[in-house]
Each structure stands twice: as C-alpha cells, then as structure tokens.
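Support reply, case 0932

Customer input (verbatim):
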Amino acid sequence: MDVLERLLYDLYSCLDEDSLLEAKIIIQNIELIVLGDSNATSTPLDNEYVMNLLFQSETPPNILKFLNSGVRHKDKVITQGKIEAYKFIAKYIIYLGLQVESLVLVIFNNCYDMFRHEESKEVKQNCLLPIKKILSLGLVRNVTNIQSCMNRSSNSALVYIEKSLTPTNINLTSLYHFEAK
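Our regenerated output:
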C-alpha cells in the first residue's frame, strides 16, 4: 500500500468518534504528496492513478466519500478537515487543469450536493471553491448536465458562485439559462 492510499484510509477513519487523527493534517499531507513536495515521494505520481484514488476509489475511500459521510458531523476537527479538503480540491483542479476534465461533473455534482446538505456556513462557502475553479477555468463542457444539477434545488449556490466570479466577467445566469424556482 502506498502512502497516498494509507492517508485516504486514515482520512476516512477520522469520522469515527474515537479517532485521534486530525483530518486537516491528513489533507495537508495528501496535498504535499499530490501537488509536489519532492521530499514526500521518491517517484513521480501517475495523474490518472491519483485522480482515481482521490475521487473515484471505493478502497481506499476517496475524498468525496469522506466529505459526503462527514456532511452532518459538527465536530470542529472534522469541520476543519472538510474545509481543508475543499481547498485542496480547488488547488488540484488548478494544478491539473484540462487533465481533470473527465471528473468535472463528478466533482461539481458532489460539491453542489454537499453545499445543499452541509450545516456549517464556513464549510458551505468552501464546498463551492471547486465549483468556482471549474467555472472560472472554463472546464465546463457539458452545460446541460450542470444545468440539470443546479435545477434540482434553490439557486442559492448559483447566486454565491456568480457573486464570487463577478471579477472574471462570467455571467452564470445566461451561461446556464438558469431560472430560479
């Protein structure tokens, strides 16, 4: 088992009530390995392998599974870990750019769903960071799927994202032909 796999197992185990591990520190270690601390790993990482581990793997549990399972946790340590995870995902999207395009809808849908169910305001704000990066970098290729995702509930996420992207001159309402319910 490699270090990244072990960290993902540890991250998910943070959700156990009796865990002594801190999710925020584990995410920071994942970030060091994935985004390029040359001392953290002796061999270059395969981007496809890493993307699969981070966003699609069942064993070890991926980051999105940690975030989905932790959506109702109110523990401050878990909350800080979730915030750090969303920040990492946003950095990872920037780091890989078009290489992450195959996972854009998976990330977008998961982050949007977690925004709708998350109770912490601070976590809610941070779960939209990956969505903002996806939109601001122009990684959206299938507007119909994004529109259907956003039409499932209120437009509060859309309003927040649009306000955040105003400096980049992206008008999401016209881009998605979104109609508030």
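We compared this against your earlier run and they match. Two observations from our side: Residues 32 and 38 are 9 Å apart (CA to CA). The two ends are 48 Å apart (CA to CA). Please reopen the case if you see a mismatch on your end.
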